[in-house]
Amino acid sequence: MAEGTELEWAVQVLVNNFDKYSSRCCCRKPRRISKKDFRKMLSCELNHMLTDTGNRRAADKLICDLDENKDGRISFEEYWTLIGGIASPIAHIIRQQEQSVKLTK
Ligand SMILES: [Ca+2]
């Protein structure tokens, strides 16, 4: 995508990241991320935002929490829940930082 807004670019990055780690078990089924690839994604892509990304038990717990339909794989919708779960506390931290900047001015 050559042109686009920052938000469009960010969404594209998130979708590309899902495609990078997900696969299709057969051509008619949507792409999903296996547990093994999900653990790889956590440690390679989210090691600054999430703690314990190298901890297998913590990663498996996260997969279990996200895996709503309990098929042992992470669908795009389940992946999106993770993104929302990360974005929410980060938005809170950014607002706190903005608030402290205002207070010190
Ligand atoms: Ca699932």
TrEMBL record:
Name one process (GO BP) from the record. response to calcium ion
Query: Which UniProt keywords are listed?
Result: Calcium, Metal-binding
Question: Which GO CC terms are listed, alphabetically?
Answer: cytosol; extracellular space; nucleolus; perinuclear region of cytoplasm; plasma membrane
The protein's matches in Pfam families, at most eight in alphabetical order, are given as: S_100
SUPFAM superfamilies recorded: EF-hand
Q: Name one GO molecular function term.
A: calcium-dependent protein binding
Q: Does the keyword Protein biosynthesis apply?
A: no
InterPro entries given in the database record: EF-hand-dom_pair, EF_Hand_1_Ca_BS, EF_hand_dom, S100/CaBP7/8-like_CS, S100_Ca-bd_sub
Which intervals hold domain EF-hand?
Answer: 54-89
Give the domain of life: Eukaryota
Q: Which PROSITE patterns match?
A: EF_HAND_1 (PS00018), EF_HAND_2 (PS50222), S100_CABP (PS00303)
- PANTHER family for this protein: PROTEIN S100-A16, S100 CALCIUM-BINDING PROTEIN
Family under the similarity heading: Belongs to the S-100 family.
> What name is this protein filed under?
Protein S100
What organism, scientifically named, is this protein from?
A: Meleagris gallopavo (Wild turkey)
